[in-house]
Input
Amino acid sequence: MPDLEGTIFGEMTYPGRSALRAVRVSGPLSRKITKKLFFSKSDPWKNPRTAVSGLLRNLEGKPVDSILALAFPSPNSYTGEDCAEFQCHGSEGVIRGLRSSLFALGAREALPGEFSYRAVLAGKMAAEEAESLGDLVRAETELEACAVGISGSGSSRSRILALKEAILQLRAKWEARIDFPEEVPQPGIKTWKKELLPVLKSVRDALSLSRRSRPVREGFRVAIFGAPNSGKSSLFNCLLGRERAIVTPHPGTTRDMIEEKLDIDGIPMVFMDMAGARRKKPGIEKEGILRALESAKRADAVLFLFDGSRGWDAADDEALRMLDRKPLLFIASKKDLYGKKGHGAALKALEISNRTGEGMDGLIKRLSEWGKRNLPKKGIFLMNGRQEECLLGIEAALAEAEKAVTSGENELLAAEKAREAQREIDELLLSASGEELYDLIFSGFCIGK
Amino acid sequence: MRTGNKGTKYDAVVIGGGHAGAEAAYILSGMGFDTALVTHDGDAISRMSCNPSIGGVGKGHLVREIDALGGLMAKAADRTGIQFRILNGSKGAAVQGLRCQSDREEYSREVRRILAGRPLLEILQGEAVELEVSAGRVRGVRLEDGRILRTGMALITSGTFLRAKMFVGLEETYGGRIGEPSSNLLADNLEKQGVVFGRLKTGTPARLARRSINWDAAETQLGDEVPEPFSLFSRPFPALPQVACHITHTTKETAEIVRSFLGESPLYKGLIRGIGPRYCPSLEDKVVKFPHHERHQVFLEPQGLDSDEIYPNGISTSLPRKAQDAFIRSIPALEEAKVLTYGYAVEYDFIQPTSLDMDLCFKGVEGLHFAGQIIGTTGYEEAAGLGLYAAFNIGAKLGKKDPFRLGRHESYLGVMVSDLVANGVLEPYRLFTSRAEYRLLLDRHSAYRRLSGCAEERGLIPEGESGFRGSREKAFDRHLADLKTKKLGGKGSSLYTLLKRSDADIPNIMSEISLEDPFMRAYLVSEIKDEGYRERQREEAEKLAGSLGTRIPAKLDIKSLPGLSREIVERLISKKPATLLEASRIPGVTPSALTILRVEIERLRRK
Ligand SMILES: Nc1nc2c(ncn2[C@@H]2O[C@H](COP(=O)(O)OP(=O)(O)O)[C@@H](O)[C@H]2O)c(=O)[nH]1
Ligand SMILES: [Mg+2]
Output
């Protein structure tokens, strides 16, 4: 449970997802941490709420990444406390290093929902508004499933309930043996292991299903990729229905990456607009292109744009080679300029106009068909971060139980770990099960002399 | 005690001489208070009304804790035990339970001997019929013969005696034990004070004549070769000769006989309304609920060294006498068994422990305490523990000291009290180790380290033994240090490191340090083996205690909180938890509800 005084940190982006990864720090140590880890000519704390570029250093003072830092002095921050944000490159190593530096400087990893929790405390947010707190209160995740129009085989909640039942049954067997050694048969530790393994397996199955179901919750990630000036930012804006990205006739306008979540026929998708791909990279654009390639590589799908009025050319070839994966769709843009005599046909490209909106319905249809095809087949399993955290906790506890029964030394330790697993699943379901264990024990075993 | 014209004056009066009452009287008088113990029958003090055995898994832990806290049960059991066994020997050290067979008569006599050694304790034979209460405070206790005991502190430990009703078949009689009357006047009077009673039920089997049993047909069960006492300070030990016990089992025929008599079962005819414990079912229940079990174990426990009585544990019943005769004879070894006393069920009044505060004081009347079976528990050990706990708190009030509290990670006694007071009971409550969240911390070896300080402060540790307790822990530390520095054959890893391995050759490693005491050896091994797990449980417990210790301010308007379900709001309002910890113990109060409460409390604090 949160101790309210400490300094906490947490990643704001999803690990392994984006080219850009941001870590937020909140609490009294934020200034000290910035001073120690961020090196720049200008001090972000003197330019609050502004991105300041500089170098991220490790504890030995060695630079490890060029990053952006933002400072939000109290009380004008998300949590009401001093907050700092570090935007780094998506390298796992950099993030891992940053985490351990933060930890060494006295901050700790935030618990799920803790930023919001602090925000609520500071009166920055009503409890009902806080998304993560809201998650705590409303565990009916299958609502989300209904919202995207999928009927899975069994809802997420019933899957969790089945898991809870399995854990309780396991504990009932084990605890009956421990508390009633004279009345209940006492099989060897091998039996304990045999009883544990299927439960552990179903927890792991649930976890992997949850991972595969993630697009349903967070959206499929769709990269809009292509050579400069092919109309990527225009398409992005067109899909959004507003001028979110800057569009100019000059190649190389988009340098950083922007993304927005959209509902495509009920399926959540995150579209990413990015720098146009070209090899001869003028200085500042270089970074942006690297990030674009990284994101496109990790995306669930890539839309490859080329200027249909000009036709496919060497720049498009170059961009395609750089991409190094098969796009979902080729799109010939600017159809309003070339009319019927399009260049798209040869590539089976979809012809659209960002200006008139022509072909947009077709694009949406193709996207939604693709999305539906790629939803998890064997039902879906939706969990928010907090719930997945619990499931991971269950997995860890049962894995330790397995270790205890495998080493063959101590049934009690295994039972303690099973208890931990139950506590996690109670937490997941936001329910306490006290007497249920004994109901199972006394209905399953003839206890009592 | 001071006698005046308005009656005799005592600091505290304990009503009921069972296991709870005896323990409470012993503690109160030991703390220097003038104490009266009122009992129907001075010879029946600490009588074992159920099976002649003390301890078990969880219960054995409790007895060790009672010893650490300066109570009497462990020593009385050690001096009168005729077979000692450790249960769960092959499982983790923390759930190994000590259990003994007792000489039933000797046990009661030993407790009376111990109580006789308390000059401030007066045992009064009689029946308490009325509490004198004015202005919401206890002023005295009136006995049936008109005597008045003036006191501000009453502790009722009347066990199953309030409005007790016994059943043998469809026959009903009033009484708490065979030949002992029930207490109805006191029950009526307590109701006048606002106490609300519920009904519970328990039962016993028939008692059999030892000589009528064919012992050759039963399996023999011996005690441990090196028996471990409940109190590590019992000398000499064991005090009595040790005997074997025997086990037999019911048969298909037994089940058939029982089934054929269900029509005459007060339980199945609906005469008994009280709820019995599921972990102590009657044979009728076993046969009905587990029809696929062909046999049920029957433990043939001697009532004493010289007693002719055998307690057949496992076949408690309230069927009519002819049914008891018939089914007993269908059990191997009991074909010719002669019944000395028939089994019966007893139904009695109890008070929901939720109407008590953490001192075990009734919330409606200052100074009116309850402990033992009357607050919904079963078992001698549970009763004794509660008697001791209530006495500590009465003592605290008399001495104007801080109340006595035990955390759930500190003792089984703490687990039991908080379970009872926070949740109440649906069936008679028995302690299981699984009820404790942090049971690795509650092993029997460390009980003295955990708890002896509390007894020491109150002057409850007998002279001589006090230094002994301290030196035991010092010896432990010394041996631990030895194990950390010494190496097997002088080279390689330390003995301590070797012990932690799962395939450690424990006897060989331990032989490297000079240590004779087998219990100290077990203590060391258990501490070292699970150290990592134990540490983690300790951290978790402390973290929880820290965040959940927060008090819930009275001005917090629970109804106005967003996000709480109506059900949770109702429970919080009716149970009025004082802290988040107490709130978390209320069934149905979820972690998210706690989060919402915490947020609101913090917000109020900042205002
Ligand atoms: N006529 C026409 N012009 C377009 C269309 N899409 C983009 N443009 C123009 O092409 C230029 C480059 O567009 P932009 O979206 O910035 O391309 P990006 O570099 O790929 O992001 C701008 O001048 C746009 O106005 C289209 O569908 N029709
Ligand atoms: Mg652009």
